Amino acid sequence: MKKLNFAILSQLFSAGFIPLCGQSLDNVTRVYEHVIESKWEVDSDHNRMLNYYNRDYCDYYLVRLNDDSYTLKPGKNTVFTIRADSEFDSQFKNAGSYHRYKGVFPQEFDISTPYALPVKDGKETAWVTDRRERRKTMRFRIEPGDTVCATRYGVSCLTQDPRLLLVYHQDHTFAAYLMMHENFISPGETVIPGQPVGIAGHDGLAISFFFLDRNMFANAVADGYPYLHYVPSFSTSEGILQPEEKKPYVAVTDGSLVMREMSRREQKKYLRTVGGPEGGKARKPQSHEPAASLRITWLQDPVSEKDKERITGILDHELRYYERLGMDDDLTLTVCTFKDADKAADFLQEKFGRSVDVRYVGGIYMSREQTAVIIGYDEKKSERNVRIICHEISHHLLRNLPHTSIPAWLNEGLARYFENCTVDRRGNVDHSLSDAEKGRLRSAFMIGSVDIREFLDTPHKEFMVHQRTDSGIAYTLAHALVTVIVDNGCDGIVEALLNPGKGERSSDIVGRLYPGGVQGLEDGLMKIIGQV
Q1: All domains of the chain, ordered by start, with CATH?
Q2: What's the farthest any 2 CA atoms get from each other in the chain?
């Protein structure tokens, strides 16, 4: 599976690498510029809202002096609202002093929580105190160039140096992996105990475990350095224990430790990967619950809960389909919705350096940034909202499949297929071409403007020219062809189209795999549009 790329976030930091030496922990816990931003915004009901945007993947603790403290979760956080009909005079209207800290206070910290040693299962290691750091840091004995393994389930956070790895755990504790020569994990990725996360540097590996300590705060403001560093309990051949300094221990990273903090869906996926709980034949996930998942971070203008519910229903259907094509990862996607097209254009220019004419665009997917931008979002047009967002989600899932190429017609055809799906309250999925699409295709065949074989081999640039100059026929024809292929259960054709042989064209693949070849595909198309 293609590694997730979060260039959208790494671009926020351009100050250069931090030397992997003493004081690096201070850099790990620092709150960087632009990660937390506040904006006064007005919703559709003319209520004024103070929104904080957290662009990291861990929680942050915000303290406004003479006011209150707030937990800022990843994404959008509304901390205060002034109703349109209210005359309430809030101190939020005036500039105030505030402090921001990475992390929040753990609710139930337990020093006996088991961690994995940062080496492969069955391998021996020992640790000593790293005296180059001012805070408690464990330097493990690992040969330079050896694999570093994750110690606990969590999500990777932003750091200024890509060789550093900061993992945020479910109980609001952190693990900072220092001195690595290479880091395999991108911000936003989930790691599990025992998973390879990097390569050890020439001095081995240093890890510091810490959390934001409530006892370091007085009147909600930290008294000096606000983090407490600790030595966890590790799973070893001698049991789960806090290891003595310099004493060697053998790592035990079994299935129970790996799955301890997973969701049920993640546990099913893990058991399927390793061959089930007994090591035998992998268990097949239930048909109603896909093993892979997609976590969406919603930014900018709010998306209604009604739209999110409809999107979730279609997304489950999409995930099951893409799983059959080889997708088995838990993916993430950032969706930025804009009611105002000009604001969307400014956002694209400012954040990604892209000048885009958004007047006739409903959505844009950027694969490198793993981000979809939705333009012209309107709470009153739920069907349009859901269609566009599901369309861009399909692009994201397809891009994260194992592939060597994606034909333009297949890319847009699958996206149009899923945007036109509907799911009822019982979970039943319905899809069909609209009467308008059928009529448009009948007219195109009537005037002889369609050649299926030629269309299958159309390069992307030429495909888009047809879309712009021929009344949108390219997307419509792509949708119809994908409908014929999908409804006939020809997943093998889609897999072959994504990974063609050397010099093999799309028409060649359809010719050898679809019943009746290209002509059979055209006959199937004629049938669904009512031409035969």
Answers
A1: 20-262 (2.70.70.10), 286-402 (3.40.30.160), 403-532 (no CATH)
A2: 82
